[in-house]
Amino acid sequence: MMNQDTNNKNEFSPLGERGLLVVLGGGESGVGTAILGKQKGFDVFVSDSKQIVEKYKQVLLHHEINFEENQHTENLIFRANVVMKSPGIPEKAPIVKKLLELKIPVISEIEFAGQFTNATIVGITGSNGKTTTTLLTHHILKSAGLNVGMGGNIGKSFAQLVAEESYENFVLELSSFQLDGIEKFNSHIAIITNITPDHLDRYDYDFNKYIASKFRITKNQTENDYLIYDADNEAINNWLQTNTTKATLVPFSIEKELEFGAFLKDNTLTINIQKEIFTMPLSGLTLKGKHNTKNAMAATLAAQLLKVRKDFIKESLENFEGAEHRLEFVAKINGVEFINDSKATNVNATFYALECMDNTTVWIVGGVDKGNDYTDLLPLVREKVKAIVCLGIDNEKIKDTFGSVVDIIVETLGAEEAVKVAQKLSEKGDVVLLSPACASFDLFENYEDRGRQFKNAVKNL
């Protein structure tokens, strides 16, 4: 079926003989890697332990790429020269453990694709805000006329973009899972929006392991590169005090004035990294809330480092529309606003959402708990939330945490039911906020599916 070179398993060089590339996982990352791998001369085999979604299966068939589903054929997989592991597959998975024991390189899609482009990369990671910052950075650069693509953990996979486009710049959203699989990949400009506990189930419930994963984004940076970071974030500051990076540090803060970086002064976004200071009143930003001010700071810093003119930056900040499923206004029905924040899959994201609510709130929360500690939300819930609608299979922790501060807690098992219950519990002037603080895989395909079902349910009221 394929030509395999089994004598060179420990050395993966895109410049040498290609050999066999095995792709574990037939989703966005996997299919993108398969397309790029075939284009670059590898024998490619895609293996998925589950059924491959039809749209991805059709792409593999179109490109005449060999694949299997609902199984892993180990005697074939273990002949690989290099394996790309999709980010959803944990390192603890038996197949991955065996590959590592056999000293077969297991890398991420980001690592694989990065070796086939000379484009300037802006890499963006963080527990929250990375999608909005990625979209906004791309919006600014594209508006300024740069030849720029966007992908990674959002939109098309990085690998597919490298295979099919010829961008001179990339803005990539990078999850900790994607960063775990890098060895040589580098971003000229790296952004860490913030670090708060998330995905601890994948990191042995050790926050320090998760922090270290995020900081892999600066692992290969040089003196010519930049690390933009939230100077108000405790986890980031602690890491920087005890670790080093070669990159130039570019901080942003809404709490203190900085000699170098971005900060707030007199309700004005102020940036001092070039010879001329960039300023813009907060009232001019379309994105509202403290967290979005920080996202705007990070995106503006990146744009300035890439020599984008101030007028392009200002105009882009004034007309940017924001991310779907992140504090997205859906509708106002009988005086009640419905807000879709399905992308809030951890406690800190929901903290931001509740902080932004100016009206009495009916809060839809719940899903797959990733080791959540809800206690940070108690003051906001006590102040703003009049009723909780649980949207998950196991809601015990939510009921235990908030039962003493919220009188009404109702359990539901679907978006349509949750929306109907929330409407009954709300009155004119209230807000119904879907901000789950949890993953979605108990009742939905992903957070996008959850958000879409919520929006459809609202529109059907």
Outline the structure in words.
The strands form 4 sheets. The chain has a 6-stranded parallel sheet, sandwiched between helices. It is built from 17 helices and 20 strands. Helix 6 (130-143) packs across helix 11 (290-305) and helix 6 packs across helix 12 (310-319). It has 461 residues and is an alpha/beta fold. The protein has helices spanning 28-39, 54-62, 74-77, 94-101, 109-114, 130-143, 158-164, 176-180, 207-214, 234-242, 290-305, 310-319, 347-356, 378-384, 396-402, 415-425, 447-459, and strands at 20-24, 43-48, 66-69, 82-85, 106-107, 120-125, 148-152, 169-173, 189-192, 226-230, 248-252, 261-265, 268-272, 278-281, 328-333, 336-340, 361-365, 385-391, 408-412, 431-434. Strand 2 (43-48), helix 2 and strand 3 form a beta-alpha-beta unit. Residues 1-16 have low confidence and may be disordered. The chain is globular, with a radius of gyration of 23 Å. The protein has 3 domains: 20-107, 3-Layer(aba) Sandwich (Rossmann fold), CATH 3.40.50.720; 112-319, 3-Layer(aba) Sandwich (UDP-N-acetylmuramoyl-L-alanine:D-glutamate ligase), CATH 3.40.1190.10; 328-459, Alpha-Beta Complex (Protein-Tyrosine Phosphatase, Chain A), CATH 3.90.190.
